[in-house]
Amino acid sequence: MNDLELRLKGKVPGPDTGIEVRKSVCAICDPGTQCGLDLYVKDGEIIKVAGTKEAPHSHGTLCSKGAAMRQYVYSPDRVMTPLRRTGARGSGEFVPISWDEALDEIAMRLNAIKDEFGAESVMFYSGYAKWARAYLMRFALDFGSPNYLTESSTCATAMIMAQQLTYGMPAAADLKNTECVIFWSHNPSATKGLNLASINARIEAGCKVVVVDPRVTDIAQRADVFLQIRPGTDGALALAFGNVIVGEGLYDKEFVESWTRGFDEYRRLVEGMSPEKAAGICGVSASDIRAAARLYATSKPACIHFSAAPVVHHTNGVQNYRAVFCLIGLTGNIDIAGGNRMNPPSLVHQPGGFPTREREFTGAGRLADLPERIGSARFPVWARLSNEAQACDIPRQIETGSPYPLKALFALGLNHRMWPASQKFIEQVCKLDFIVDVDLFLTDSARYADIVLPACSSAERREIRCWPMGYVQFTQPAIEPVGESRSDVDILSDLSARLGLGDELLEAGIEACVEWMLEPSGLTVAELDKHPEGMWVPGAKPPAERKYLSGGFKTPSGKVEFVSSVLEEIGGAAVGAAGAPATGDAAAGDAVASAGAAGRAGYEPLPSYREPQMSPVSCPEMAKEYPLVLGLGARLPMFQHSRTFRLPWTRALSPDPHADVHPRDAAAAGIADGEWMRVVTPAGAVTVRAHVTLVTREGDVHLYHDWPQANANDLLDGDYLDPISGFPGYRSSLCRIEPADVRGEGACHD
Fold first, then answer.
1. pTM over 0.90, yes/no
2. Is CATH 2.40.40.20 the right assignment for the domain spanning 620-739?
């Protein structure tokens, strides 16, 4: 073998081999962890994938998902051409059509529906395509519809709402400068691998670690204090932390006096949640609660590292997280180095340390002049704090036609299995007159569409990204689009013109849009194009500390709110609505009552604790038949929902659906490790393999998502929702387990 043959075999770039390294980003995990990609391209095809070593955020690392990028781009499931449905919805029977045919038909159908039923009858939804959300929202509002929706109806928005209600805007953990961190239902090994280097460095430097989680995660095994709580009881635990911190005088008295609202009411509330009482609710020891609270309150600075969804995937989720976030203000760890820092986003939900006009680009200010959004009446706090419609209310509105009929859905990356009672959800959606789905793959959801449009992957399109260290990248396509696929933004631009929306900026294309959004920063597309690998932003700077000293907090009172002004206004104390105050003693109930008049149940202005609507405590009779607490949607690191489930490399790492079960619960049901079992709830059943493990608490079952043969979310009723956010209670319901024949319904036969 000669030298050239060796270089070709080794995929060595150079003029003689014809191999070129092109820079890109992996957008499979989106939007917070886009790793830099070196794509080795020969003859227009990606032949090798590696991490970009100079990328300041990922440093050349790739997880299993990014390593499988070639399989992702060249999947046999890719949609190669626009498709028109010919068979029944869900049948997968389509015929190829041209782009002109597809876009003309979409424009004709959407404008006809708009003329007959109003623009609000058309929904515009972004699922997987987070990078294109600003463009889709602008497109929807150009069309005249207030109903811009995203998968954040079940993902991060409720967590953000809890922060907005408490201190006005998100505040992320400053891991690099902290002396103590609480990982509150956050498992960085599975979801935020890029943070592990900072975490490990701080632990090695002596940073104290507290972990709150129903499962024994990797980080829990390194904790100074690990609190393995019963699912859905986070709020009780957080109030017990407050009991210790206030009762022992460990709170930041100066900050509390000057910058908080409702401390006296909060103090009375936490007096009713002693560590002993919380221990009985949460299933952890009172001494460990005290140790964790003291460690957090006495370490300066300290932060809480939380995740997007697990705590808010309960019917008491927003209030649980409000109780957690109150601890940040209580200890004065808000907006300081090493605490929880307020850093506004620059682009695609990420802070970059430079100003942009992304929000102005979306046109969100136009919402005030449009009809009410889906879910606004049912979830008024959501409507107050979010610019989106609440997608969990779609089935109800389709069924009832109230407050107006819904007739069409235009979606970027629809996945109906994200929603509770997934099959019923898609059955309601099928009642619409017209459905369009834009996707890379002919997914199970795309099979229900009337028109399917093929989308590009991140390797085939341009997109703008930034990272918190002040780094920005405007990618260029590494390869030509696979088949006839197009960028989501190119599709929106072309369709805008055909609909006659008159949006010159959007119709000019992505470069013009990016140029406009970046104008306040001084960056230009021409300069970014000189740096396809990305560049440091001149003048980018981390946010100042204690910004509230000059402008206050972005709450109605301008302070950290133990008593929420918004909940006080919209919901009242809700004591009478439920027939009794939220869990706590009489003092706690009095404190709630003093904060406002009775109103909506679950809307207490104080972060009061209520049991999940379905738990062994709240439903003792149901628990006789379904004695185990079921958590749905735990994530495995090789899967990103179902998108990488279809890839041979990642699928091979976990080929069969499974659920974690404690050894004693498995033994009681007569189930051995690896055997098939049925997980049964009042709403349905799935068949999965039993993973018998001490990672899980006795009495809990954790069912992982991703397998279409065992769709976890069909085990939940569609109305099992948090009353404030509308989020599904995925992480706490009731179930039983029983042995199953692998030939039974729901078994995996791959």
1. yes
2. yes
